[in-house]
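chain below, 396 aa
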Amino acid sequence: MTQEVNLTEKLKHYFGFDKFKGDQEAIIRNLLDGHDIFVLMPTGGGKSLCYQLPSLIMEGTAIVVSPLIALMKNQVDVINGISEEDGVAHYLNSSLKKAEIDQVRADIVSGRTKLLYVAPESLNKEENMEFLKSVKISFYAIDEAHCIAEWGHDFRPEYRKIRCAIESIGTDPVIALTATATDKVRTDIVRSLGIEDCAEFKSSFNRPNLYYEVRPKKSDDYTNKQIIKFINQHAGKSGIIYCLSRKKVEELAAILKANDIKAAPYHAGLDSETRSKAQDDFLMEELDIIVATIAFGMGIDKPDVRFVIHYDIPKSLEGYYQETGRAGRDGEEGICIVFYSKNDLKKLENFMDGKPVAEQDIGRQLLQETETYAESSVCRRKLLLHYFGEDYPKDN
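prediction:
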């Protein structure tokens, strides 16, 4: 089938791009040929295009399993924005009312919908499985596939049931995509999805335009002053500051505002209206800085974030890599700074008390790797890439 399709033409027609990035074209051709695929592509590499474009070309509806409602909405809006007619992309999740669900189903049955985003919980619902059995499915895309792995930094038990759902609905090609996965996680993903014979595509984790730095965290007051000084040196540039607790997010955002910096807080405890407003203001450049918990950033496509600062040391290097990956997506310079103190590590260890033993073991191991990163005298880039199983031969 793929010989007949001029993919570059389709890419231009639907998305306005002149050429593919990296492995995108090879991945899409494999999918069109009916192969299962595993894609490891760091943040900003253009993962979603690998399933969006083939879904628009192939017969039937593609099912995209995605863990976050905000992410689904964002992507559905993008696809419907480039389509001539309504309903080309839809999502099914717990936020929809019955009438809306009926509309989604009607559009799928009529063949209008090419892309259906579902939360794993919705995919596993009996009534949805029954409905999907009755329609033509082109393929399944499992986004953020590391959520399957108990080893991942983002484990979701519902992801473990995806294979059963696929077998119940009807087996079609599966493409699993993730931005961060060590070998252990990768093995777990392909096994759990039953795609051991899949074609694999891995992109390099090196982001040459990002600069990594660790600074000592002497006291909150000291850190706040450093951050204000840094922002003023990069006046008018966009940045994200990550804090572990919601309380710290609120405090820091208030301090920055008091220093005439255009900043807003973002965390899961704020109502959705406040969150959407912060997100939109940040995208529209009304705000320079978002102070956030890690709830912020999934699916935020702002190419010109110039710096990502971590107020607290993250729980895992995978999480850290993914969060810093939101800087410099346009290929220009991005500065990634993390403030580190031994104390913070102790706090993170204490958070684990009372959790199941296996979870504590994994958590401690992840923390140990973070500690090594923070305290090492080796080039940070070398260490980060080594963690993902990649060799970085250059010094410094």
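DSSP finds 16 helices and 13 strands in the chain. The chain has a mean pLDDT of 89.
thats it, cya
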